[in-house]
Write a structure and sequence with these properties.
This protein is α+β, with helices and mostly antiparallel strands. Helix content is 52%, strand content 12%.
Length: 808
């Protein structure tokens, strides 16, 4: 599982500009200038050695990537492979540490958890560099903990060898993230664990172990002191050399829970069960099967918990000066969770509360990711990253079905369902027998007639609601609002209540039969379920997300569609990615106008242009200016909402995938509610329409359903200023306020030119209390407290009067 998660999808996507691209370019320059890799020289690019300021972090990750480029060539997977190998060392260290202090099963659990945590496998598979730090923390902790606590190491040389492994881990951590996160975290974590054992009266197994613990504590305290002094008194250069991060005060200071916020989404889905599993791992062990290893298990849990707490404190300490950095104590959380799942195997009757609490927390994470899918970028720990709109719908499906899988597995594995046959359906005291007896008693008494009468009454109400939906006027139904659908099927309430226990019991007994057949402990099933979801995120969700963030797919699309000899230009940041993927001579225009000029200067030949979504508006406006608003810029690949592939012509069967075509056209629209309203002599409102999400016009709307409100504009003269759109649906002392950025802010008013027809689309949904009434529609443009004035047409206080809207 670890190999699948860390190594298999190394070429899962192209370089993520600018984040991975910056590190790849600096590493290439290191390989050229310091390692003599002349084959990596890129014409027209900087090929000199970078400065420490350009690195922005420790040098070890850059050197690792440079070695990959030097040995394997200039490609994305060659740069990622060394970082993945570092992460694999971290997995091995975690397995070694947990197996030597508990057993191999708990160690396997820990590595499975760690390998499927997004914060770990994403840092391992991307050229962001912190995979080295996370692995070095695991190596340093393992070496120091083995040297300090393990009693089976009798020879001083062996204990010294483990100590040297720990020191190598500390050196690697210093080379990646400086003295605080790279050195103080593992050293101080092990040292404090040793100190707590001493204060609790538990001596180390040998004198050399005592020395190792004291040395760990001393190194940790020294690193903490040095790092703290630099953090509060040092210069920016000292930050890079000692702290391993550049001085970068965030525009918004992190709150006290910023690290927990990163862990919540960075460890998902494990973050739903982690708090409760950690509590289980840290309580007093009573495992009879492992009673001879209990002292070692206690030492391990104390050591891992100490590393976790120290990492939590250090991240909170440096965040105001350096911003949020990937949490270095990730392996410690995974190790504690592995121990907890191993303990749950012998506590099958004490997991129901854990399952309920974890399910509640998982639902909270699901709700957050559904409403704000950009939270899934948290494991990358990069500032300013934008979530691609083209992936939002797919992201919600991934999270939805993955959470349902985990909820179902938790219900079966940790819900303490009966797995014995003592109360099967044939048993006299079974639920089925008692249910049949209750039905017989009800049929002989008055309860039967009472239920029958209630069914008839509810059936009559359902018939009235059905007739009202076919045109019968029943004013009292308007007060039901969104409950009308429930009332319509009210006649099913009594039968469902009576029959409902049977499918519930059948599902329960089917799960019990599955548990009897299951050749493994229940806790292992729960772990495998979460690991399967984490692996699906690793091999499916995040590669799909990265495909929308990287320009590689656009270059591949060019290579598939272009004929030999056709030229390609790259505009913006994507130009720096061209040496990694360009299969032809590549031009790099310096501006949007220069890019369009190059694209259109040779009408006899077909040319191609790669551009970012942020440049599309300007290039499209220049294109329409050049060709007289005849059409929008031809886009041949808009799979990603971030990077696009344009051409100067379309083939006979090639559709224009320009996303602006939804809003900008040269064809006069035909609104469902036509108007003729002049705004400041610059715009003419032609009307408005309401459509369902598929684009089909509707005359009435229903509460609780999503619709698109479309406003149609004709540009008469250039529009001055930048305006937002407001929509007011007023009536019955209620108002729906639909303020929003016009055209989602992607095609500013400065790009609108005379002769353009613009369609502004805003998705809205009315709440249930709006039902059963007619409302007046108003809309217009505003900026701050000012509205764009209406010169002619129906209006009120510069609000266009659109007419009536019926809501049912």
């Amino acid at each position: 599982m670890g190999a699948l998660s860390l190594l298999l999808p190394l070429s899962w996507c192209g370089l993520w500009a600018p984040y991975e691209l910056e590190m790849a370019d600096i590493s290439r320059r290191i390989a050229v200038a310091l390692h003599g890799a002349e084959a990596l020289v890129v014409a027209g690019a900087t090929n000199t050695a970078p400065t420490l300021t350009e690195l922005g972090k420790g040098q070890l990750p850059f050197t690792s990537v440079a070695v990959g480029f030097q040995l394997l060539g200039l490609s994305d997977w060659a740069g990622r492979l060394p970082l993945a190998l570092w992460a694999a060392l971290g997995l091995g260290a975690t397995f070694l540490l947990v197996s030597r202090f508990t057993d191999r099963v708990a160690a396997a659990y820990s590595t499975a958890v760690l390998a499927t945590m997004p914060l770990y496998f994403l840092q391992a598979r991307t050229m962001l560099g912190d995979g080295v730090t996370l692995a070095a923390t695991a190596l340093g902790t393992t070496g120091l903990a083995m040297s300090t606590f393990h009693p089976s190491i009798q020879r001083h040389r062996s204990r010294l060898a483990w100590g040297l492994l720990g020191l190598l881990g500390l050196l690697a951590g210093f080379g990646a993230r400086g003295v605080l996160l790279g050195v103080a975290c593992p050293a101080l974590g092990v040292g404090l664990a040793w100190l707590m054992c001493r204060l609790a009266g538990q001596a180390c197994p040998s004198r050399s172990g005592e020395v190792s613990g004291l040395v760990s504590l001393s190194i940790g305290l020294a690193a903490l002191g040095l790092g703290s002094w630099v953090l509060f008194k040092g210069s920016p250069a000292a930050y890079l050399e000692v702290i391993g991060a550049s001085l970068k005060e965030p525009s918004k200071l992190p709150t006290h829970d910023s690290v927990l916020h990163q862990l919540g989404f960075g460890l998902f889905p494990w973050s739903a069960i982690a708090p409760f599993a950690l509590a289980l791992a840290l309580r007093q062990p009573n495992d009879r099967a492992l009673s001879d290893r209990t002292p070692l298990s206690v030492a391990l849990c104390m050591c891992l918990a100490s590393v976790f707490v120290v990492a939590l404190a250090l991240h909170g300490l440096i965040a105001p000066q350096t911003g949020s950095l990937p949490f270095v104590g990730t392996f410690a959380i995974a190790g504690l969770m592995g121990v907890a799942f191993r303990a749950m195997e012998d506590q099958a009757k004490n997991t129901r509360l854990l399952a309920l609490a974890s399910a509640a927390l998982l639902i909270v994470f699901y709700a957050d990711l559904r409403s704000a899918p950009e939270q899934s970028l948290g494991p990358f720990s990069v500032a300013g990253a934008a979530f691609p709109e083209s992936f939002a719908a797919e992201a919600k499906h991934w999270v939805k079905y993955g959470c349902l899988l985990c909820l179902g597995i938790m219900a079966v594995a940790l819900g303490e369902l009966r797995s014995d046959t003592a109360f099967g359906p044939w048993h006299p005291e079974s639920d089925y027998r008692r249910w049949l007896k209750w039905l017989q008693t009800a049929a002989r008494g008055r309860l039967f007639w009472l239920l029958a009468a209630l069914t008839l009454v509810l059936g009559a109400v359902s018939v009235l609601v059905l007739l009202a939906s076919r045109g019968l006027n029943l004013p009292w139904l308007s007060s039901l609002g969104g409950w009308k659908l429930v009332v319509r099927y009210a006649f099913l309430v009594v039968p469902v209540v009576i029959i409902a226990p049977v499918p519930v019991w059948l599902a329960r007994d089917a799960a019990g039969a599955f548990l009897r057949w299951l050749p493994m402990p229940r806790a292992r099933l729960a772990l495998l379920g979460f690991a399967a979801f984490g692996l699906a995120l690793s091999l499916g969700y995040y590669p799909a997300l990265a495909a929308h963030l990287s320009p590689r797919n656009v270059f591949e699309s060019f290579q598939e569609q272009a004929k030999p000899g056709e030229k390609l230009a790259v505009l913006g940041q994507a130009a720096r990615v061209a040496p990694y993927y360009g299969g032809a001579e590549i031009h790099t225009p310096k501006s949007a106008r220069a890019g369009l000029d190059w694209l259109l200067d040779a009408p006899a030949e077909r040319r191609w242009l790669v551009l970012s979504a942020r440049d599309l508006g300007q290039v499209n406006q220049l294109y329409r200016q050049r060709l007289g608003s005849a059409s929008n810029l031809p886009i041949l690949d808009a799979t990603s909402s971030e990077v696009l592939l344009a051409s100067n012509r379309l083939g006979e069967v090639e559709p224009n995938q320009n996303p602006l075509s939804t809003w900008v056209t040269n064809i006069r629209p035909t609104p469902e509610w036509p108007l003729d309203v002049d705004l400041s002599g610059q715009l003419r409102c032609l009307g408005w329409s309401i459509t369902d999400p598929d684009g089909k016009p509707v005359a009435k709307v229903t509460t609780g359903q999503a619709y698109d409100f479309r406003i149609y504009w004709e540009v008469t003269t250039p529009v001055s200023g930048n305006w937002q759109t407001f929509i007011h649906i007023d009536g019955n002392r209620r108002r729906y306020n639909g303020d929003h950025d016009t055209l989602q802010g992607k095609y500013p008013f400065k790009f609108w030119q005379p002769g353009d027809f613009m369609t502004d689309v805003h998705r809205f949904e009315l709440e249930p209390h709006f039902s059963g009434a007619t409302y007046q529609v108003y809309f217009g443009l505003f900026s701050g407290d000012k509205r764009l004035s209406v010169r002619s047409g129906k209006h009120h206080e510069d609000r266009i009067m659109g007419g009536n809207l019926v809501v049912h």
